[in-house]
Amino acid sequence: MSNPSMSPSNDSPARSVSVFSVAAVFVGFALFLLVVKYVYLPHQFPAPHSVAPEQLPADQAWKATPEARKAYLAELRAKEQKQAAAYAWIDQGKGVVQLPIDRAMELTVQELNARAKK
To answer: Residue 15: its pLDDT value, please?
Structure first.
């Protein structure tokens, strides 16, 4: 037989919840959602093909039409080809240079062969 003084009391009156507490919970949840929306979710921009080219930001205007994308890609590839075949200083103070890819591969092979001989 259980001792009635030792068992939890189910006869205690229910505590009422104040309107202020409920409102505070909703406000806290709303603030949480706002933080998630503006801080953690990426900003969505309209699809470039669904907006008039003149209304797009300058860095997105090249995406507006197929012709603009082809022209941008051709310009980008020409720039990359020029860069891949040229010598240039990247950071002269640190001694960092840009080499043509073929020459860079030759130098890397020479360096690896020299290490292997040691």
So the answer is: 76
